[in-house]
Amino acid sequence: MALDALDCELKIIDMEARHRMSAPVPVAPAEKSAPSLHLIPKDRNLGIMGMTEILTAMQLLGGIGSITGNDPTTIAFADTFEQSFGFSFNDIYDRQIELFKRLPCNLTKTLDAMKAALMKEYRRRQAAKKKDSEGKK
Fold first, then answer.
1. Of the candidates 40, 36, 61, the residue with the CA atom closest to the CA atom of residue 111
2. Is 86 left (phi over 0), alpha (psi -120 to 50) or beta?
């Protein structure tokens, strides 16, 4: 009888141990650390106004949601950019006003520079690919 009770206790302990191992362990939210990337504020092709251009274009394109399922606010976009790249817009609404005061030919300076960089890399890769295929012949 005592052995049956002991056996029963061991089974309960075993079940509890298995349950603890399979149960999800709550994880404390990570502390915010300094971003590993940082923005050079007055960079010719990027900088704060360049980031304003990118942020505004991404926001207008849509396709990015918030954790609430709603469209993210301008402030939510700005906070994410600031945290990711370690800078401050100071006032994103003022930056956007500055952006839309530009002449139409200057409205997409950063996006144009990004396109040029992508096209340059594309042409470089195509040339390397062509050179490789000619070398194999």
1. 61
2. left
Distance CA 6, CA 14 (A): 12
Residue from 32, 34, 29 nearest 85 by CA: 34
The model's pTM is 0.66
Can you give the residue ranges of every domain in the chain?
A: 39-135
User: Which range is least confidently modeled, 34-43, 86-95, 119-128?
Assistant: 34-43
Contacts of 58 (CB under 8 A, 6+ apart): 64, 77
DSSP annotation of 24? P
Distance from C-alpha of 23 to C-alpha of 14, rounded to nearest angstrom: 14
Tokens of 18: 């298995």
